[in-house]
Design a protein that fits this description.
Oligomer: heterodimer
Number of domains of chain A: 1
Strand content of chain A: 25-35%
Shape of chain B: globular
Largest sheet of chain B: 6 strands, mixed
Largest interface: A-B, 23 and 30 residues
Structural class of chain B: alpha/beta
Distance between the termini of chain B: 18 Å
Strand order of the largest sheet of chain B: 6-9-10-3-11-12
Distance between the termini of chain A: 7 Å
Strand content of chain B: 25-35%
Number of strands of chain A: 23
Number of helices of chain B: 8
Helix content of chain B: 25-40%
CATH topology of chain B: Rossmann fold
Chain lengths: ~475, ~260
């Protein structure tokens, strides 16, 4: 590989600073007492504590899965702190009361908070380490009946909703990391769109891990009632540490009749250094239940960070005519690993799903697409279209595709297309022969490659994603 | 056209180049002056496409000896993009596909890059659209060409036309057409040749790399060079191509010294 490719992918991580904020950290280790401590700190009702304890019991009986195409040293779950909150822990009435040091952090991050949020017209919930520190536009949303707050708050203000839906899409014992999350989750976002309401603005959560040695376990729950619709954005960054940090979140989406939920993620957790030291383990369970007729769940993700990304945002298409979508760009560089994809479970009649996955690997990284399309016997007339494209930059990286297709109804139509391409010398030579330099060429090739996914993102996010990718791959071509 | 006292655009002296340690070009001498059209002919493996790529600066090849002057500059020390910006154009034998990138976007970026280098005005998308549509008429290209991804799903003929369209846009000083005739049916060949003929003038020069005489019926060369085993073994006028057509390349091998002596 020529020197141009090499230099294009290797740029320092911008968000690697640590904010000097006093934190309230629980001692390292996981046991029933820690779970009771978390629950007590958050002043939780009894039912939630028993939800956690049930999950913990379940987790104790499980072992970490090993089927994924990623490699890492065993995680010592007793060496993680399961609770870390910025002090002071008094209730915040408005953004003005947020610790200025924290606000500066978000200014550095360029997170779309206050003025920026106002300009962009996006309501933001910010999760710092494990605790929600601020939610904007709450009042304005409340006027149309939308509840958008941290999940800890929702547990107190709308316990009946949380209790009704929590764990219904991702049960406590669903998988090893979902069980862990159910036992120890500290915060996350809650969003409820009542019947017939189209959410007037994009809702957004910004996740930040700050404390070394702490894990982040958020729980997000979004419910769209009959005829409701919402577009939800999630962004994440973390400081640069030499140790690996675990991020094991659970996101549950529920769409009732004719409801529409669009969930977009731009994930930029710290990926470790160029030798593969440090970085976030991003082991996340995301699942949406298209429960009602004509409902629609759409996942769009741009995964650029994390030492290891291991997640499958999925759709259970239970309602007749419901629609599931998954649009993904996963970029890996240096020693990053990604095993990501989706599951489309067709249960209702005439359910439709679309999967568009774009994997880009550079450096010594490895990227896998893993996806399941399951057509249940009841899914008369179901249709799926999957397209999985991989692009390799350089000759030290790998791309893999693992499609699983299970069809139990012969009226179904399932299509799968896959391709692998390589940004090689010949492509770059073509550009350079037209006067276009390598960096611009790679940026153009990558953006062309990802176009089908980027055009699904809300405007602001699409711009950010484009920049992030160029930045990420800068120096990898040569 | 051969013009008396016209300026030299390209001068190649004793050029040797190898790929992965194997020497392909074994001492090439070639001078191209403005206004001229040169044809380089030869069998597969004779080194003609390698010569084209080496001149354009493909990084897979290593130049081991010789000198190349392009418009008075040392061409060999320029990276490929600067050679392009200086006015050296290569029409590819196998143009690459760029999925998801609209042709118009690519063409405009290439055009503006070269314009900027020349200190000329760059065009915004609307201005460029008018400009490129005018050029497309030269090559009888349909407007939907602009919105399609670069070369993706193009037929062989469409790809070659797209190359010549780029040549028309970039107005190079020297164009090297690498097997532009291969894979073209006779109608497409005529369109492409006609396009090239309208671009060539007394201030620029063209090198046609080709296997067959057919292209030379439509783009008439001033000089024909025959390559064999990495060297130019014979140089003549346009009649040499016809001679080759009837007698075949074996005839060259047999008469190398003699004929070369006559024409040189």
């Amino acid at each position: 590989m020529s020197a141009v490719l090499q230099s294009l992918v290797n740029q320092p991580y911008k968000h690697g600073f640590v904010t000097d904020i006093e934190s309230d950290i629980a001692p390292k280790g996981l046991n029933e007492d820690i779970i009771r401590l978390i629950s007590a700190k958050k002043d939780e009702p009894e039912w939630l504590l028993s939800f956690r304890l049930k999950a913990y019991e379940k987790w104790l009986t499980m072992t970490a899965p090993e089927w994924q195409n990623v490699h890492y040293a065993k995680i010592d779950f007793q060496d993680i702190s399961y609770y870390s909150a910025p002090k002071p822990k008094k209730k915040l009435a408005s953004m003005d009361e947020v610790d200025p040091e924290l606000l500066r952090t978000f200014e550095k991050l360029g997170a779309a908070m206050h003025e920026r949020a106002a300009l962009a017209g996006v309501a933001v919930d910010v999760i710092f380490d494990s605790v929600s520190v601020a939610t904007t536009y709450k009042q304005k949303l409340a006027e149309v009946g939308i509840i958008f707050c941290s999940i800890s708050e929702a547990v107190h203000t709308h316990p009946e909703l949380v209790q009704k839906y929590l764990g219904t899409v991702v049960p406590v014992g669903d998988n090893y990391f979902a069980a862990l999350n159910s036992a120890v989750f500290t915060d996350g976002s809650f969003c409820f769109i009542p019947k017939g309401v189209k959410c007037p603005m994009d809702l957004s959560t910004y996740f930040r891990i700050n404390t070394e040695g702490s894990g982040q376990f958020e729980r997000t729950l979004i419910i769209a009632e009959e005829g409701a619709s919402v577009s939800y954005l999630e962004g994440c960054t973390a400081p640069r540490f030499d140790t690996n940090q675990l991020h094991a979140a659970v996101v549950e989406l529920i769409a009732l009749d004719n409801a529409d939920i669009k969930y977009s993620t731009v994930q930029n957790w710290y990926a470790g250094d160029e030798k593969g030291v440090g970085g976030i383990y991003n082991f996340v369970t995301k699942r949406g239940l298209a429960k009602g007729v004509n409902s629609r769940i759409s996942w769009t993700q741009v995964e650029t960070g994390s030492a290891i990304t291991w997640k499958y945002p999925s759709c259970i298409l239970r309602g007749d005519n419901s629609v599931g979508e998954f649009y993904s760009v996963a970029v890996t560089n240096n020693y990053q690993q990604a095993d990501t994809g989706t599951k489309m479970i067709h249960i209702g009649k005439n359910t439709r799903s679309t999967i568009v996955s774009k994997g880009i690997s550079a450096g010594h990284s490895n990227s896998s697409y893993r996806g399941l399309v399951r057509i249940a016997p009841t899914a008369e007339g179901a249709r799926n279209y999957s397209q999985c494209d991989s692009m390799l930059i350089g000759d030290q990286c790998g791309a893999h595709t693992f499609p699983y297709i299970q069809v139990h109804n012969n009226s179904a139509t399932v299509e799968h297309e896959a391709s692998t391409s390589k940004i090689g010398e010949d492509q770059l030579f073509y550009f350079s022969q037209r006067g276009i330099g390598a960096e611009e060429a790679v940026s153009m090739i990558i953006n062309g490659f990802c176009k089908d996914v980027f055009q699904q993102l809300p405007m602001e996010f699409a711009v950010e994603a484009t920049k992030l990718l160029s930045f990420k791959l800068e120096g990898s071509v040569g | 056209m051969i013009i008396e006292n016209s300026s030299t655009i390209l001068s190649v002296e004793g050029l040797r180049a190898s790929i992965n340690g194997t020497e392909i070009l074994k001492g090439i001498d070639l001078t191209v002056k403005s206004g001229e059209i040169h044809a380089i002919m030869g069998l597969n493996g004779s080194g003609k496409s390698t010569l084209a790529k080496v001149l354009a600066g493909h990084s897979a090849y290593e130049v081991t000896a010789g000198a190349v002057q392009f418009e008075g500059k040392n061409l060999l020390e320029l990276p490929p993009e600067e050679r392009a910006r200086a006015g050296l154009f290569l029409a590819f034998q196998y143009p690459i596909e760029i999925p998801g990138v609209a042709n118009t976007q690519f063409l405009r970026l290439a055009y503006n890059t070269v314009q900027a280098q020349r200190g000329k005005e760059e065009l915004d998308p609307l201005e460029f659209d008018d400009f490129v549509r005018e050029k497309m008429k030269l090559l009888e290209m349909r407007p939907d060409f602009l919105d399609r991804s670069v070369n993706e799903g193009f037929s062989g003929g469409e790809k070659k036309r797209n190359e010549i369209l780029q040549m028309a846009l970039l107005e190079p000083k020297l164009s090297i057409l690498d097997e532009t005739d291969s894979g073209l049916d006779i109608d497409a060949l005529k369109i492409v040749a006609n396009g090239v003929n309208r671009i060539t003038n007394k201030d620029n020069a063209t090198i046609l790399v080709t296997h067959y005489q057919r292209l030379l019926d439509y783009i008439v060369p001033d000089f024909v060079h025959v390559m064999q085993a990495g060297r130019i073994v014979m140089t003549g006028g346009k009649e040499l191509a016809l001679e080759l057509e009837t007698r075949g390349y074996d005839w060259i091998t047999a008469n190398k010294q003699q004929v070369a002596g006559v024409t040189a």
